[in-house]
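Annual report, structural modelling task.

Input specification for the beta-L-arabinofuranose complex:
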Amino acid sequence: MNKTNPTPLNLRKVKVEDPFWKGEMELVRKEVIPYQWNAINDRVEGAEPSWAMRNFKLAGKITAKRKELGKAYAEKIWPTNIFQVLPEDKEHLEDRFYGFLFQDTDFSKWIEAVGYSLTQHPDPELEKTADEAIDIVCAAQQPNGYLDTYYIINDMSKIFTNLKDHHELYCLGHLLEGAVAYYEATGKDKLLNAARRFADFVYEKFGKGEGKINGYPGHEIAEMALVRLYETTGDGRYLELSRYFIDERGTRPYYFDKEHPEEAKRHGDREWYHYYQAHKPVREQDEATGHAVRATYLYSGMADIARLTGDESLKKACERLWDNIVNKKMYITGGIGATHLGEAFSFNYDLPNDTAYSETCAAIGLVFFARRMLSMDVDSRYADVMERSLYNTVLAGMAMDGKSFFYVNPLEVRPEACHKDERKFHVKPVRQKWFGCACCPPNIARTVSSVAAYAYAENEDTLFMHLYLGGKVEKAYNGKTVIWNVDSDVLNSGKLRITCDSVSEGICTANQTIAVRIPDWCTGYSLECGDKKHELRKGYEYVTGDFMQGDSIEITFEHKVRILSSASAVVENAGKVAVSYGPFVYCIEEKDNGKDLHLLSVATDPGLAKLKKIDIAGQEITAISLPGFREKATSNELYKDFETPEKESTEVTFVPYYTWNNRGEGEMRVWVNR
Ligand code: FUB
Ligand code: ZN
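The model returned the following structure:
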């Protein structure tokens, strides 16, 4: 292990007992994973079918027949150039592929979440269901290793002919992620071996040279997933393939032009394919462009490769892209991707609140990217953003009962506009049960259930605490194992206590280091660590010493209500402020403040803020009240001579953004008039 490159702690080494996150993880375990299983088996009434397991079963039959005949077989070849296939008659389904052509990933994300969940909560029943699902998936695999039901069912002669749009390598990536997670949790390698065979097949097909496909994924993820496979198996071919995809991307002539000559004619010599981050070689990119999920998945893969190969130019590109996102293209909630047109990044500082896209998956992608930047460079600025996205946009993506989800995460909602204004139809005023394109809910499930791998990382002599996740954490230092007990009350009192509790040796003399991040939201902190040394580096307190059983570190992060403004370049936020407390960004809702939130204004002195507890969805939540005014509504005469509006004083109540819309449909806004 390279000392300077911490990697996420294996989930089996953490027992999460955190008062906040344990609840979220239990929601995923008890609600989302079973619901998701029903969804991928098309058993949820009123929800669009996933078709995922049905497609695998059908592909399994076709594969069996092909094996029996020893040659390609299809009773009927269906067209392969459509993005989503829906039945004409729901009562009479045909033996064909249905759904989006990346529908296989519904299974992959489910099995990934199952794997993470099993590390915290062994569940033989769930494991049995998962093993049976794996049998179905593996039966669909072609003898050559290929495993994507869309082409297995439709036409194997067309595989890899539309990398730009057809998501085969995206399916590979998700399959790898799911397979590794399940293997790491259970030690069972059936799915891992299948996923690996698919990766081997892709390795044989892609690359430079005669007869090889010199393309790259239209939707990235394979890059980082292959790195994960490499780190799990030690097989360098996967690292090589990932690097190949990254190096090849955006080079001229464009690979996507070869696939789509008609597009090439349209753009001529112009720079093209920004949507796919393939407009120029990745090392020359300095602005985050295009589809935000694709982008962050690519940047995550780039950071992985930069870390493992020591590629400085790639690292610099990651830093530039990171800076561009967090300084010019990120919402205060940690959401990214401002426009629904292409689910994409907009231009610098264009961050509209009411038409925001801010896809849940994109925030998750930013969390992935942040974790990888942290692995190259332990600097709290990366973890600060990771925390911002996780505690705000990612959690807002799921209702507090775990039963419904947001795909789009606006910062301002007037339900009437969502219902009547076509430009805002993508903004749903209430969470949805599921989505035909069900990328976000399973993505939340896999992220929340593996939050410990974002909170903790390690290298040979240091345990890094990026997030303050309570529980028991096991870390081996120079062959000696230490269990750290982490009591985290950071979200309330700001207190964190980390106690050394050695296991086998009784007394530890391993000269252990624990590095604790100092968050950007604290106004000061105190640190008690007895006779141990401590040093602040890049926003982390490194506490080092020979910890003995019972020795502890205590940190208190002071935090107060903050009133925030944005750069004046963000035109939408002119004259407005936002409120935060700890890692949470707050918002105002109709439920607490009445209709017409645009008529409210608040005081900007944080000293006037008061904390209060309110009940949201049966949970005690810290709300904030600030004195303010409500402008009296004037007559509905559209235009008139200006008169200073009448105002009445009021108390404005703010609640954490992640809790919004858990009390019915209503207005909401994060940025409030000052
Ligand atoms: O294309 C696959 C997934 O569906 C993307 O990541 C999401 O943005 C959604 O479009
Ligand atoms: Zn999504």
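Residues 102, 219, 293, 343, 359, 361, 437, 439 surround beta-L-arabinofuranose (ligand 1) (CB under 6 Å).
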